[in-house]
Design a protein that fits this description.
With 312 residues, the protein is mainly alpha-helical. It is 74% helix and 0% strand.
């Protein structure tokens, strides 16, 4: 039941962040607002995760994160809004991620937790700034996190030890983020844009399930290698959707394999890699298909080397 709450709350937090932040897209300083939001939402997960490990918190952070997101929604000052919702996003991700890592086994639950975020971002962007959707989302988020007030005050240590090479996993996350943000996908428009978001969510969830059955190397490394081949056909929507699905399957593996005794810190370190990989795209950097395929293949090889066992 708690995993369902964490996952639905993740959807709502990302929905509300997109609803608010993307309402400023016409602002003259939009690029810097986007950088500030992503810094607060992703890079700040590292210090938040370190503090969470020290306090051994999980669900409580989700409540505090939701409160900051709702507070930021009510602000009409762009800088204040993006900082508040970004920090709220960071707290929720770390709290939920740490709770899932410390109270469950395997990759599947983590995949289920991270999967709904992409759909929340997409739908929040579609209705950005529309008051009724913001109010509805905020009410649902409050109802979702209220049960987490009674969550464990001090979470136990993770049930599984670290299985992967942390520096290699960080590099994989950075490369994967860079490729995802700079890949050219001319087919991604209209109904295919929504399909790409759905396939992104499916890929993350499927990656967790596949890793539990086949091991992290196959689910993560082999899927990245397969996606690299499909990236060579950027004008095909069908192959493009399959590439998205396969490419996202590595997400739960990179987040979980390096955890060890400090799940919040490692979770935050990986999201720092997401932030660093995002930066070039904000200034218009894009890659031709052969470079995308090459980098995807390289990250797959790295994950084959750095992830856990072939079969758990």
């Amino acid at each position: 039941m708690k995993l369902l709450l964490y996952g639905f709350g993740h959807f709502l937090v990302d929905f509300l962040c997109a609803w608010k932040v993307l309402s400023f897209v016409q602002a003259q300083n939009w690029i810097w607002l986007a950088v500030a939001y992503n810094f607060c939402a992703f890079a700040m997960q590292l210090p938040v995760g370190a503090l969470a490990d020290r306090a051994r918190w999980g669900g409580r952070l989700c409540v505090y994160g939701a409160a900051l997101v709702i507070l930021g929604m009510g602000s009409s000052y762009p800088w204040g809004s993006v900082v508040l919702v970004g920090l709220g996003n960071a707290l929720y991700h770390v709290g939920g991620g740490r709770a899932v890592l410390c109270t469950t086994c395997g990759y599947g639950p983590l995949g289920a937790f991270v999967a709904p975020g992409a759909l929340g971002l997409f739908l929040g962007g579609l209705v950005r700034g529309q008051r009724v959707w913001g109010i509805l989302g905020a009410v649902l988020l409050l109802l979702c996190v209220l049960p987490l007030l009674t969550a464990e005050k001090r979470l136990p240590s993770p049930k599984e030890e670290r299985r992967g090479r942390l520096p290699v996993l960080f590099l994989v996350v950075l490369l994967r983020s860079f490729v995802a943000m700079t890949v050219q996908s001319p087919w991604k428009a209209g109904a295919f844009a929504l399909a790409a978001v759905v396939f992104t969510a499916w890929g993350k969830a499927l990656g967790g399930l596949a890793a539990d059955r086949l091991g992290g190397k196959i689910a993560g490394g082999v899927s990245l290698l397969a996606a690299s081949v499909l990236f060579l056909f950027p004008n095909s929507p069908i192959l493009g959707l399959l590439a998205v699905l396969l490419y996202q399957m590595s997400m739960p593996i990179t987040l979980k394999d390096g955890v060890g005794a400090y799940p919040g810190t490692v979770f935050g370190l990986m999201t720092l890699g997401l932030f660093l990989g995002f930066l070039p795209s904000i200034w218009g950097v894009s890659l031709p298909s052969w470079q995308t395929a090459l980098l995807s293949a390289g990250s797959g090889v790295l994950l084959l080397w750095g992830a856990g066992r072939w079969r758990d």
